[in-house]
Design goal:
Elements: E1 10-13, H1 15-18, H2 34-38, H3 41-46, E2 51-54, E3 58-60, E4 67-73, H4 80-92, E5 96-101, H5 111-119, E6 148-149, E7 152-156, H6 163-180, E8 184-187, H7 195-208, E9 213-216, E10 234-235, H8 238-249, H9 253-264, E11 271-273, H10 282-285, H11 292-301, E12 305-309, H12 337-340, H13 343-357, H14 360-363, E13 365-371, E14 375-381, E15 385-392, E16 398-403, E17 410-413, E18 419-424, E19 427-432, E20 436-443
Helix pairs in contact: 6-7, 8-9, 11-13
Length: 446
């Protein structure tokens, strides 16, 4: 039987941004922003989503990834009790909850780092961080040096070779499972985490909760190094993300198809997305805005676990600058949902319902059926049935003759009011308008 995450559609929430929380944590108690987030749940369900990835959540000083307390929700969002109410409501809505695990580094106000600042070499926590040396001073004036994430000295790197650090972080995960019944962790900066640490985490979390999901943030590299039976269940599929937007921009479906074939060798469900809190919005990356809907067809029907980043369902635009990501993480009031609602919203909801209803799109085998620079068709195989996706990235309409790899007499176009298309001599002929696509249901003849 498939695990819940193999069937999931995620909704990605960046709560500090979407609630308009203060940019800096002043240490004073703020409003209960989880009340705002609760108002999103019916909307999230309406898109067909079955899980939420929300984060960062740990108490932090600024952007959320400079953790100061791993067992406290960020006070700019609300209390632990408020988050517990939120997760309980998510589960009532049959939405799984996955949170950010920022375990590569901490903020400088984390208790262990402050203890080293105060006691120097006498601190029992001096081995909790990588590269601690009292032979030099950090650029921020500390009486010692240390390894920092990508040279950002406000983010000192934890030492996962220290068993006390590992045990502390496993206790943190256990706390979030016991207190809030979370269903998984997204590991920030998984590409630089110690492999033995992640292997031990897999064993520890399997004992905490059945079907607990571990997903890692990995941008480059051989994803199978992280995704296997010993370590993580999934990683962020940046490769597919890149090939999708450049494949549409360059009118070159070969790039997408090549990437899918290569990643199929992993044989696992990677976490796929059109945009996220670190990437320019897909609506800003695409040269042709009309490609938005076929991009989401790809997202929902290609192999992988699809994720919608908040605002994507409205075609929201946004670009980061060298110094600021705020344009990617805007405040959105639930009062504006009706005003933001557009044709794309309904189309994504339809795709979400299709993904939910057809197991072929969860773990079904992928098969390429037709490929040119501007037209692409592929199948996802189920038990004596198929879902076939057909795409056209040209501005002009195109007629596709798609081979059907099972014996069948007709296809049903799930995006066009269940329009019936005949299958003749083992092929479907379909006319696609410019910048469009179709999702076809095929039932085999027994």
């Amino acid at each position: 039987m498939s695990a819940w995450y193999e069937k999931a559609i995620f909704y990605h929430m960046y709560p500090l941004g979407m609630t308009g929380a203060p940019k800096q944590n002043t240490g004073t108690e703020g409003a209960d922003q989880f009340r705002k987030l609760e108002q999103w749940l019916p909307h999230i369900k309406s898109l067909g989503c079955t899980a939420i990835y929300i984060g960062p959540l740990f108490e932090s000083a600024s952007h959320g990834y400079d953790t100061t307390d791993y067992k406290q929700t960020d006070r700019r969002l609300g209390s632990n009790e408020a988050f517990g109410r939120f997760t309980a409501l998510c589960h009532e809505h049959e939405l799984r909850v996955v949170v950010d695990g920022v375990f590569n580094h901490t903020g400088r106000n984390f208790f262990a780092f402050r203890d080293i600042q105060e006691k120097k070499w006498d601190s029992p926590f001096k081995d909790w961080y990588k590269g601690v040396s009292f032979d030099w001073q950090s650029p921020l004036g500390d009486p010692f040096g240390y390894e920092a994430w990508q040279g950002h000295f406000e983010l000192p790197c934890l030492n996962h070779a220290n068993p006390k650090v590992r045990q502390y972080l496993f206790d943190v995960i256990r706390f979030w499972v016991d207190e809030f019944d979370i269903d998984g962790i997204r590991l920030d900066c998984a590409n630089v985490l110690d492999f033995r640490f992640m292997e031990e985490m897999r064993r520890e979390t399997e004992a905490m909760k059945e079907d607990f999901w571990l997903m890692g943030e990995v941008i480059h590299g051989d994803y199978s190094r992280w995704v296997n039976d010993r370590m993580l269940h999934s990683v962020t599929n940046y490769e597919l993300h890149k090939s999708i937007y450049s494949g549409f921009n360059d009118r070159n479906f070969f790039e997408i198809a090549h990437n899918v074939r290569r990643l199929e060798a992993i044989g696992r469900s990677l976490y796929t997305f059109a945009d996220n809190h670190d990437e320019d919005r897909i609506a800003s990356k695409l040269r042709t805005r009309e490609h938005l809907f076929p991009v989401y067809i790809c997202l929902m029907t290609l192999p992988g676990i699809p994720s919608i980043y908040y605002g994507g369902e409205w075609g929201m635009e946004g670009k980061r600058t060298p110094d600021c990501d705020e344009a990617l993480r805007p405040a959105v009031s639930p009062d504006d949902f009706e005003k933001l609602h557009c044709e794309l919203t309904d189309k994504i909801a339809r795709l979400g319902a299709i993904h939910r209803d057809y197991d072929e799109l969860h773990m079904g085998r992928y098969q390429e059926l037709l490929l040119t620079n501007r037209q692409y068709a592929f199948a996802r195989h189920g038990n004596n049935r198929l879902i076939i996706t057909a795409l056209n990235n040209d501005d002009q309409e195109a007629v596709l003759n798609i081979p059907v790899p099972i014996a069948a007499s007709e296809a049903v176009n799930l995006l066009e009011d269940n329009e019936i298309l005949p299958i003749t001599d083992g092929k479907i002929q379909i006319t696609l308008q410019g910048c469009s696509g179709a999702v076809l249901k095929i039932k085999g003849e027994l």
